[in-house]
Amino acid sequence: AKLDGFGLLARLRGEAKTRSLPVLMLSARAGEEARSEGIEAGADDYLVKPFSARELVARVWAKLEAARHTRLMEEKNVDLDRFAYVLSHDLKAPLRAIDKLSRWIEQEIGPSGSDETRQNLVLLRGRVQRMENMIQGILTYARIGRTPSVEEVDVAHLVTETIDSLAPPDALRITVQDQLPMLVTDRVQLGQVFANLIGNAIKHHDRKNGSVKVTCAAREREYEFVVADDGPGIAKRFQEKIFDLFQALSPNDQNTGIGLAICKKIVESHGGCLSVDSDFGRGAQFRFTWPRAPLSNRLHAKIN
Hints:
Distance between the termini: 16 Å
Strand content: 15-25%
Oligomer: single chain
Order of helices and strands: HEHEHHEHEEHEEHEEH
C-alpha cells in the first residue's frame, strides 16, 4: 500500500531499528499548524517547499550531529549505570560486614555488656541501614526516565495497595477519593510517588489520630493528585529545600533526604509538576500532575 509522509513516519517510529533515526519532513503545506502536526507526529524537523539545497543540507547535518550526540549520551548512560551498580555493590558489601560484626560483638559481650554499649551497637546498625537506603535511593534517582514500562493502571487499586504496604497506625484516618482514574502509564513509578508522599504524611504526623486524604481532579490533558494531611506542616523557608537531594527536615536513621527528590524527578520525567502548599502548624498538601496518556500514545493518536 502507498504511504503518505505521515504513514511512513508512523512506520519508521513503530520499528525498533528505525525508531531513533532523525527524520526531516518535506512538505508543501506551510503555516504553524502544519509544522506542529509534523513535529507532533514524530518528525525532528519540518521544511516547507520550495527550499534551497543549502538549507536542506544544513538541516540534515544538524540533525545527524544531534543524533550522534544523543547516541553518545546513551552510551554514557549505559556506562554510568554500570559504574553505579559496581559502586553500590562495593559500598554495600563493607556496610553489611559492619552490620554482621556489630551483631557478633553483641553476642560476644552477652549479658556482661553495659546498656550503653548495646544501645551504641543498635545505633551503629541504624546508621548502616541509613547509608544502605541512601545508596539505593541514589541508584533509583539515577535510573528515573530510562525506558519506562507502560501498562494499564487502576489508580484506586494502586493507592489502596500502597497504603496497605505502609501499614499506617489504626488511629490515623486515611481517606481516598472515590472513582480514581484508569491510566496507561508506568505503574512502578506512579506507585513510588504515592508511596513517598503518603508515607511521609504518615511518618511525620505529630498526632496518632490525625488524617490523610488522597484526592484527584481531572484536567484537559492530565490529572492533578493531592496528598493532604493535618500534621505539623512545613515552614515556608524550607519548601524549596525539601525537593533537593539529601535534604531532610528531621534527619534520623529513617530519613535519607532522597524521597521527595525522587518524586519530583519521576513526575517531571512524565511531563508533570510537583509542588507543596503548607505552613508550619497547618498541615501540608502535596500536589502533582500526571498525564492522561504517555507521550508515545498521544503521538500515535495524532498520527492516526
